[in-house]
Design goal:
The chain has 603 residues and is of the alpha/beta class. It has three domains: 49 residues, no CATH class; 258 residues, Spore Coat Polysaccharide Biosynthesis Protein SpsA, Chain A (Alpha-Beta Complex); 253 residues, Spore Coat Polysaccharide Biosynthesis Protein SpsA, Chain A (Alpha-Beta Complex), CATH 3.90.550.10. The chain is 37% helix and 22% strand. Strands 12, 13, 14, 15, 16, 17, 18, 21, 22 and 23 form a ten-stranded mixed β-sheet that branches. Strands 1, 2, 3, 4, 5, 6, 7, 8 and 9 form a nine-stranded mixed β-sheet that branches.
Length: 603
């Protein structure tokens, strides 16, 4: 007899063809390989960072100034006995005791082992209701919410497990900030009673959330927020939690994230955690949830499901009107590299742009002949000469920006080549949003591995690229390399910014002559309340600073060290607190989401 998995593989091959099937197998191999590497050292992380018995006992003695009732709502349906008992035990073992458990059971009848267990416990905090009919996960969850009398509602699945300190950590954070009305934590997968694949999440990231439901578990929401946005919606069954999270975070006053693994999502044959292909209707429901979120925010965009990554989405934001884009390219000689760059720009599908080449101390005759030819043949190319004795990337770009007539600026290195002809549209659609200040692109080395897919502040003591040296289509850690998401910074080797925002922050800081000027620029823009977005669907090859050379002289090393000192002085707060779009549980001496297995120092 053909196994279910083999039959499913055959049906997928028949429906989608050989190329797509091979691609899918390759992506799955990459994900499994990466998750194995993560899980290999996760056991050490658990040993060093889970609360000890003494710490858990001390948590039980904590007297919070504010001790809200937290109602844990759980829809049930034919819950397996072992899963039910483990779930109940995990709640009974909570070190915070002011909770209420609301169980809404849509099974055909109350199962005897459930009835016996609840009867033996005789705990007034546990409320159980057998529903007259099974109306699906959304309606069943809503029935559990209706039973709840708590100040906060916590969502949990019927076959998952909470860490003993989950509610304690939630209440502890709420006591620090009573404005918090939406809160989520990190999570892992529970497979055959072994914890695997920890998901250490960033703080709230709207672009990552529109790419997939990274928030997922464990979610705790102020009951007043649920009263405002409404409960779960049946029409989104399968992605009802995704729809709810999008609606709730859209209205929340204060969204908080606890960077601790407080939820264990069980993987088994029928769970979404166990098999991403087991419930394809989930992906369609998720697509509609994102579309609804865009509509609620008056944003015009097209949502598609990523072909090789089920459950991941792409939003193509519609371009309003036809704004002019000014592309600023510094250049010193390097005619061959510049020509390769310019020729690739000319193949762009977006045509309302101008190119401003900032000439910086070139000496070769061929360079100037090329400038003349460009300006003669292309009315949208302008060459402007800056008179400075030393290389100053910030000053060069600020000089070029003064000649820009576009509403949007692209800072572009002369050592890049555009790969995706629609790169400008991909960046512009995002950049036109009111909440966005800067958009970055995905940069590849010549060997088709990643050079840049986002920057994290704190890596290497200052800042560093993440998602590096991956295959071009490798999703990286939880797809951070292949979906649109937020970072604190992106590289100015290819960076789009609104011209008015460029001027609002006074351009690039000229004290950063060579290093960290783009990171500083992004942080200045973020300081004004705008988002920095990485769009990996705008792809370029980067030949990495060919014309500038290495930091190989005493003068260059001294200048580099002084810029490090200046950056640390200026951005000490984010260096101390940690990058909100990374996670405190990652190492800062490595740049690809490596888990720090040592004891994490927490505030």
């Amino acid at each position: 007899m053909i196994s279910r998995r083999l039959k499913a593989a055959y049906n997928y091959l028949k429906k989608n063809g050989l190329k797509k099937s091979v691609n899918k197998l390759y992506m799955r191999h990459l994900n499994k390989k990466q998750m194995k590497n993560i899980s290999d050292n996760y056991e050490d992380y658990i040993k060093n960072n889970e609360p000890t018995f003494e710490e858990l006992e001390n948590q039980k003695l904590e007297n919070f100034e504010y001790a809200p009732l937290i109602s844990i709502v759980i829809p049930m349906y034919n819950t397996q006995e072992v899963f039910f008992n483990e779930l109940i035990d995990s709640i009974l073992n909570q070190t915070y005791s002011n909770w209420q458990l609301c169980l809404a059971d849509g099974s055909k009848e109350t199962l005897k082992y459930i009835e016996d267990r609840l009867k033996s416990l005789n705990d007034s905090r546990i409320l159980y209701k057998h529903l007259e009919s099974n109306d699906g996960i959304s309606e069943n969850t809503n029935e559990a919410i209706k039973m709840a009398t708590g100040d906060y509602i916590a969502f949990c699945d019927h076959d998952d497990v909470l860490s003993s300190n989950a509610l304690y950590e939630v209440v502890k954070l709420i006591n620090k900030n009573r404005k918090i009305d939406f809160l989520y934590t990190d999570e892992d997968i529970l497979l055959n009673n072994v914890r695997k694949n920890p998901h250490f999440k960033p703080d709230f990231s709207i672009d990552l959330l529109r790419s997939y439901n990274y928030i997922c578990h464990f979610v705790v929401v102020d009951k007043k927020l649920i009263d405002e946005v409404g409960m779960l919606r049946k029409e989104y069954d399968g992605a009802q939690d995704y729809d709810f999270v999008l609606r709730a975070t859209n209205k929340a006053t204060c969204i908080a994230h606890i960077p601790k693994i407080l939820y264990h999502w069980r993987a088994h044959v029928n769970s979404t955690a166990g098999a991403s292909d087991s419930k394809t209707y989930v992906f369609e429901a998720g697509k509609r949830a994102i579309e609804n979120n865009l509509k609620e925010n008056n944003i015009d965009g097209k949502v598609t499901i990523l072909e090789n990554e089920p459950g991941r989405y792409r939003v193509d934001y519609a371009i309003k009107s036809n704004p002019k884009v000014s592309i600023i390219i510094p250049n010193k000689d390097a005619k061959a590299d510049l020509k390769k760059c310019i020729d690739s720009i000319f193949k762009s599908t977006y045509t309302n742009y101008e190119i401003i080449i900032v000439e910086n101390n070139s000496v070769k005759e061929e360079t100037f002949k090329y400038y003349d030819l460009l300006q003669k043949e292309h009315k949208n190319v302008l060459v402007k000469k800056i008179e400075i004795n030393e290389f100053n990337f910030s000053k060069i770009n600020n000089f070029g920006e003064k000649y820009a007539t576009g509403e949007y600026i692209i800072l572009l290195n002369n050592d890049v080549k555009v790969i995706t002809p629609d790169w400008i549209e991909n960046m512009l659609g995002v950049c036109q949003r009111d909440d966005v200040g800067i958009v970055g692109a995905k940069l590849l080395y010549e060997d088709n591995t990643t050079q840049h897919v986002g920057v994290v502040v704190g890596i290497g003591g200052v800042a560093g690229h993440v998602n590096t040296n991956l295959k071009a289509n490798d999703p990286g850690y939880f797809s951070r390399a292949t979906v649109i998401n937020n970072f604190s910074a992106v590289t100015a080797a290819c960076l789009m910014v609104k011209k008015n925002i460029y001027e609002e922050v006074n351009g690039l800081t000229e004290e950063f002559k060579v290093a960290f000027n783009d990171i500083d620029f992004c942080l200045k823009v973020r300081e004004k309340g705008y988002l920095v977005v990485l769009n990996p669907f705008a792809v370029l090859t980067h030949y990495e600073s060919k014309t500038r050379g290495l930091e190989d002289t005493k003068e260059k090393i001294a200048r580099f060290e002084s810029e490090i000192d200046l950056f640390k002085l200026k951005w000490n707060e984010i260096l101390e607190k940690g990058d909100p779009y990374y996670n405190i549980n990652f190492r800062l001496d490595k740049n690809n989401f490596y888990i720090n297995t040592n004891k994490i120092a927490r505030r």
